[in-house]
Each structure stands twice: as C-alpha cells, then as structure tokens.
Amino acid sequence: MKLYIDWNVLNGIKNGRFQEFEEIIRQSEKFVIVYSTSHISDIASSYSEEKENPNIQSDLEFLAEITDCMCVFNNGKDIVLQQNEPFHIFENEIESKNLTEDFSFNNIFSVLDDNGENAEMVAPLKTMMQSFPLDNIFKEAFENPQSAEIMDSMFPGLKDNPTFEGLFNSFGKMLENLNEKEGYKDLKTPFKHLNINQGKLTNPDNNPFDVLNETYKKLGIEESPLQKDYFEKGKNAPVWFDDITSAYISLDMHGFHSDEVKVTETKKKTFKNTTQDSFHTAFASTCDFYITNDKKNYQKAKAIFKEKNIFTHILKPDEFINFYKENLEKVDFITSWNKFEQVAKSGKFYDISDKNNPDDLNQVHFSTFNYFGYFNRIYLFNSDEDKNSISFMFGKELPTNCLGVFYKEIKEMVKIIVDYLGTDSNDKGYFDESEIDENNHWNGRVWKFDRFQYNLVQYKRYFQLYYDFEVNHFEN
What is the pLDDT of residue 120? Predict the structure, then answer.
C-alpha cells in the first residue's frame, strides 16, 4: 500500500505527535511512504540566506529516512516515481527560488550570459526585446474599465511600459506579490462580486462544482470559468495533473474552504501555499491513501477526487487509524480466507456478465477490507472452454493515476501465502529480486493441489491472485 502524507503530519511525527499513527505506518512490510517535490518546497519555505536554518537539515534527514528516499515528481512530461535524495532536490529548489526572487528583465539576461562569453550575441537580443511592443490585447485590457483593475494588480507597472522588458519586470513583481506578499487577495477580489452562497457552496451535501456552475448560469454565463482551459494542459505535466491542480486553485479562488492569505513577521500564507497544496493533491492521486491534517486541503481534495472519480482514499490521521484497524490490521492468510469464504457463501456479488451469453458467469464483490493486505475486489467467472471450471480472482481498485506495483508489495504478498501454503509448485519460497528478469518482468507463482490451485500474477500496473477449481469441488 502506498501512502502520501502531507508535510504537516510528517512534521508532527518528527516532533513526537501522531504516535499511534506513526506506529502503524512504520510497518515497512505493509506500507510504502512516498514524498514529492512539494514536500521539499514546504521545507524550503523557511529557508533564509540571512539566518541559520537549523531545522532544515533534520527535516530533510527525517524525510529521507521515513520514505526511504522514494520520490514522486514531475519530469516535465510525466509523473514518475524513483529513489531520490531529498537533499539534492532541496538544492535545486533553492537555486530556483533564488532565480524567481529576482525575476526581472536584466536578471534573466544576466543568467543567459553569466560568464560574459556570449555578450556579443546576448546584447543585441536584449536591446531589441527591451523596446519590442506587446500585443494590442494587453493595451485593450488595460483600457477596458471591467478588466483594468485586475490587470493593474496582476501586471504591476506593465501599463506604463508595455514592452517585453515591462512584461518580464511586471511578471517578476506579480510572482513576488503572489508568493511572498498578499497579492493573492487581489486575484480573489473579482470572485467576491459573484455573490456566491457560501453556505450552499460548502454544504457537505452539495457538489461545489455544481453550485458554482449554477451561479454562473444565473449570471448568463453558460460556460463557467470552471470549464475553461486557461493554459495548454499537458504541456509541462500530464493532463490529469493539470486538471487536478487547476480545479483545486479554482475552488480556492471561488471561496470553497479558501486558504487564508496573510504575511507577518512570523507567518507567511500566500498563493504559493495554495499552489503547493494543489500539487500535493495531484501527486497523492498516484497512491492508495492521501493523509492530510489540513482541514481546507482535506475538503478541496475530497471534492475534486469525488468530482473526477479518483480512487485515492483521503483521510485524516485518526480516520486512517480507524480504517487500518477495520481493514488492514489482520490480513494473514487464514483471516483473509475466512472473510472470503463468508463473502462467497453470502452471494453478495454484482452481475457484470454479458447478457448475450447466458452461460457466462461474471460477477464482482466490492470490499473495504483488504484481503492479504492488498486486494479489495473479488471477481467470480467461469472458463470460456469449460463452464464447470470456476475462478475467483482477487483484484484491486487501483489509484486512478497508479504508477505500478512495487517489489515490496509482491514480496509481502508472497510471504503471506508461503507462510500458510508453503513453497510453491516450483519449490520456491519467499520472494527474491532475482526472480525479476532483464525486462523487469516477474513470472508470478503457482501453488497446485489435487483439484484446485492458486496463481499469483503481476502484469504492468496490476497484481492479482487467482483461485481456480472445479464446481463439484467447491460444492463439496
């Protein structure tokens, strides 16, 4: 099982809180904990060149230890999962932070020619772009009374210098206002004029996306901003990642459990906090569980996952503890098999067979209990060749953006079965990574008996356990 835990909870564990939760997730045979580049951004937010940062080193060490350096990140095209030292990512984060803190026309060109070797090529380009006028769309937006106020707040100084130089400089000021100051308040201001019924919007019985779409329709706007694409999705990340982050920020801007925007000497809550929380939510959709103690993040993430049918459990630490005790604590072979037999005898299966083939048997049982610590679906079907040959297949409702099966998950599953059934039909015991071939393929395991067998297989993202038998055997 893969866990994605927000930094507030991880930091709480580091400082001695959430002790029962920590005891549970520290079971490395059951859980894989991953971190993302957004965790690094959370840690880096307290970094300062002017003063010592005593907690950052220990934060990074703790993150590396509890996750075994398993990092999920955006490589500019896909979301990938691999072992990465948090310290290396932190260094990259600080370099990026230093660049954006002075995102100006002159600074960009100084970076392009940081050693002076390209001066002859860079200087003419800089001179040309300094005075190059912008598209008339900017001029029209500044002259339009309905958009002038928000344009001035978004692009400070651009009205007086409508050139590429002015655009770079105003963009730098905008980033500073949004990420370091309280500029996000200005972006939210136009949405306050919509007079959205906040009680209706945040009512747990309502879908916030439906409430907002209805609000826009009443204003005569058939296509609400929630349905528009303001940037080319999929250009620098998968489309699904952009969809989640875009929906998250849109909900926040419209007032759905909106984040506080406040900057003081001791506290900094800006647009950057909201964007990083949107990234956390998107990264978490690759895992089985998203554990967060941030009430506003919890509500927005739940609303988005429900709207987009994303199969990742969003739980607070205490909710996860309860879920674990009911569905994951006792998952040995005997406990799992006894529960399976109860389900098989109860007949609580949904028919999903092809109505045009009355002889076909194809049913499914949905479960919150995780059989053998992993599976939460049981499929029942018969063979195409022999209708008396029946199979139960234990499967799993995967996270929507699942990144595959870990060897650690295979290893624990094999152990659970071997501990009860013994070595498999090829006399293999516990899992060994030498079973993985050069193509990263695992052949699986088979336990054959007189009139039935167990077959454990892994194919791409899927991991399944088959129990095959003849009908007369099961009836006996």
Answer: 52
